[in-house]
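example protein:
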Amino acid sequence: MLDLRQLRYFVAVAETEHVGQAAERLHISQSPLSRQIAQLEKNLGLALFERSQQRIRLTRDGQVFLAEACALLRHADRLENLGLRLGRGEEGGLCIGYVADAMHTGILPGALRALHDERPGVHIALYNLPPAEQFEGLRQRSLDIALVHEPPPADDPDLLARPLLQDPLLLVLPAGHPLADQEKVTARDLDGQPWIAVENAQDPTWRDTFVASCAAAGFTPDIRLDAAEPLTALGLVACGLGLALVQKSMVRATTEEVAVRELPWHGTCVQLWAAWHRVDLRPLVASFRATVLHANSTA
């Protein structure tokens, strides 16, 4: 059986690639740390590290093992957190998975505010995770609800989902741009314009997806900059560095340096879904889910 302490030791050494630095982080001496790593490798029958006089680095198998070890430790931490909250009589609290747009659109903050007003003593743990990890968290019951861009498969035996939001993308452009004087902007107007592309950390092919959506709409973007998230894109547009597509819910953050135009012919939107396990173990989970869905219906 895996020893969680040994896994934590392994992760520390893997992240620092230095036994001494890992030992300092863990507040132990180097010798017992080295012995624990060697014992883990012996138990697994697997070489996790390549060792030399200069450094220690992960083997290819060690890299694969590290990813799974980190996932297991995260789950163990959430499980421990759940147990502590149960021990304090906090109805188990809530563990919520989300993607960044759940925050940006106000869906999650609004639901959390309503929960706090009704039950201020409930402990809430938030986890910004990729959708696949959120779905696994729901199945393992380490998450109570997931807020994601796409639902689980319709035939999933464990999970259910409801749409929360379809947030249309609007064109944002510098207020001094020639197109800012036009009430209607066509695809031909946008062809070859300098663009700021908004990254999607959940989609490794996000750039191709963005370019393909523009091509399908009838124009080719000249991507000059990549923005990590929509608010950054808005700031770059305000500086006159290009055009961008930003969801409607975030247009309230614009300033007078930015003009906003609808593109009814583009038709792309950001979706947000709530997902949960088919079996509700605690009334608090069902209550919060109802709050999230109600917040959407009144948005």
In short: The two ends are 49 Å apart (CA to CA). The chain has a mean pLDDT of 87.
